[in-house]
Amino acid sequence: MRILVHDFLKAAAQRCPGKTALICQDATCTFEALDAASDRVACQLQRDGIVRGDRVAIFWNNSIELVIATFGILKAGAVFLVLNPGLKKDKLAYILHDCGVRAVFTPPASENMIAGINADLLLPKLSEIVAQPHAVPADPGLIDEDLCTIIYTSGSTGQPKGVMLTHRNMANTAWAISTYLENTPDDVILCALPLSFDYGLYQVITGARVGFTVLLEASFAFPFQVLKDVQKWRVTGFPGVPTIFATILQMTPIEGVDLSTIRYLTNTAAVLPHSHILRLQELLPGAKIFSMYGLTECTRVCYLDPALINEKVGSVGKAMPNSEIYLVDDNGNRLPNGSTGKLVLRGANVMRGYWGKPAETARLLREGEIPGEMVMHSGDVFRTDEEGFLYFQGRNDDIFKCKGEKVSPREIEDVLHASPLIAEAAVVGTPDPIDGMAVKAVVVPRPGATLTEQDVRKICRAQLESHLVPKFVEIRNELPKTDSGKVKKTGLA
After folding, report:
1. Domain with 198 in it: what CATH number?
2. Is position 383 within any domain?
3. Under DSSP, is residue 44 helix (H, G, I), strand (E, B) or coil?
4. 9, 162, 180, 480: least surrounded by Cβ within 10 Å?
5. pLDDT band at 483 (very low <50, low <70, confident <90, very high)
6. Is the pLDDT of residue 16 over 80?
7. 71-75, 139-143, 259-263, 294-298: segment of lowest average pLDDT
């Protein structure tokens, strides 16, 4: 049976037209209104010559407008990209060029930035499009193997890679997540995560599938206000990352805010320390805590049954519904429970590949035990206990996550190496109680240069997003090297 992601919205609009789909800054939007507005967007795109498979980007903060544009792009038969509005111009230009984006939705405040890259990409103002008379877009003839979205994620080379996800990928994942979270139409789910982050995006996709309400926050920059909104709108589900939960715990006791409606918390991006889990259980005794693990290339890998969170300390559980996980040794042989090895995942959630990067795709996607089936060799190292529960040990390369965002050390090193003040630089992740992992830069000044920690951060801040700016800086006379002359990062963290 064909299932397309935008069909979730159309079904919800027919099933519960007047129900609130989105809340954002006290504005609300029903499923019926969201469906109608996205129809108008689709019609505009088709009039502008957008056809099946074209890529259309959305360069916008979390907002109702962003969600309208997302579903409108899908209804036109195109592939959507949600791009973080914090992107610097060079990286934004790279992404738009890399996958051949045909058009961009952006608010008026960002139009000059897009125009500075390619003014022909700018679409009419979204407010003008949704004000047009209602019309139904032409059927683009999609099947569920067509691409739905491309999500750009950092790679070991420092250049972002476009993760291609089909309608089948996303529909299966939305079903699986909503199944183990036991979502119902009565849920109200907080989303303070950027929709450019797959974890945030799936709150909206799953909301359309189940018919629940999503409370969209611009960010978690003002935590007390977000918690007041949780109380006001009687939020039942709270997806977060370790940074968010650490911030909440630093605020305790939280005076004057009732969080008792929350029935579950979910965590991914980095392991949530068990000490934080214990404190969250004290703060929210009625809430289940789901510890999860995921990769953009498959969205979600596994989750731990909340009933076992104090028994299987540090575990991220077992495979989510309709997927299988196993560990292999360096030769690709399956390992029994109780072993340590590299994670392999098979299932309908595994990406199609990296856009325009067949060699990198081939390293990750390889033929499995069933001839012709491609399975994902993540390279991440896990151990399993005798019951098959997974425990994350480390990544196979030096990519890590800070504040829920992937960090490519090479990207930061390139910026530092370009400075006339710096001779050498090495960037590593270091454990941090707030960010999960924090960025640390170890630098060697050029001869005769005066360099301070503040200088290093200033250099990065001018060219990189905030999560890539080093939290820790160490200035040395030299960097450790291997016999072959490569920088030896072991121990720098």
Report:
1. 3.40.50.12780
2. no
3. helix
4. 480
5. very low
6. yes
7. 294-298
Whether 278 is covered by a domain: the verdict is no
Query: How far apart, in Å, are the Cα atoms of 476 and each of 411, 443, 492?
Result: 20, 6, 11
44 or 437, which is more confident?
Answer: 44
Asked whether residue 39 is domain-assigned, the answer is: yes
- Tell me which of 186, 201, 219 is where a domain ends: 219
Burial string for 14-46 (b: 16+ CB within 10 Å, else e) reads: eeeeeebbbbbeeeebbbbbbbbbbbbbbbbbb
What are the angstrom distances between the C-alpha of 381 and each of 12, 327, 363, 374?
40, 8, 16, 20
Q: At residue 394, does pLDDT exceed 80?
A: no
Res 484: pLDDT? 33
- What is the structure's pLDDT at 350? 97
Contact 327, 346 (CB under 8 A): no
* Mean of pLDDT values over 119-129: 96
Among the three residues 219, 246, 263, which one is the final residue of a domain in this structure?
219
Nearest to 166 by CA among 154, 151, 155, 180: 151
Ramachandran category for residue 376: left, alpha or beta (phi over 0 → left; psi -120 to 50 → alpha): beta
Mean pLDDT of 78-104: 96
Domain with 10, as residue range(s), is 5-219
3-state secondary structure of 330: coil
The CATH number of residue 428's host domain is 3.30.300.30
Higher pLDDT, 248 or 34: 34
Cα end-to-end distance, the chain, whole Å: 50
Q: Which two tokens stand for residue 322?
A: 């309709």
Count of C-beta atoms within a 10 Å radius of residue 11: 16
Which of 233, 231, 197, 194 lies closest to 214 in space, CA to CA? Answer: 233
How many whole angstroms separate alpha carbon 230 and alpha carbon 188? 9
Three-state DSSP at 194 gives coil
How many residues are recorded in the chain? Answer: 493
Q: Say if 225 falls within a structural domain.
A: no
pLDDT confidence of residue 481: 65
Q: What is the mean pLDDT of the chain?
A: 92
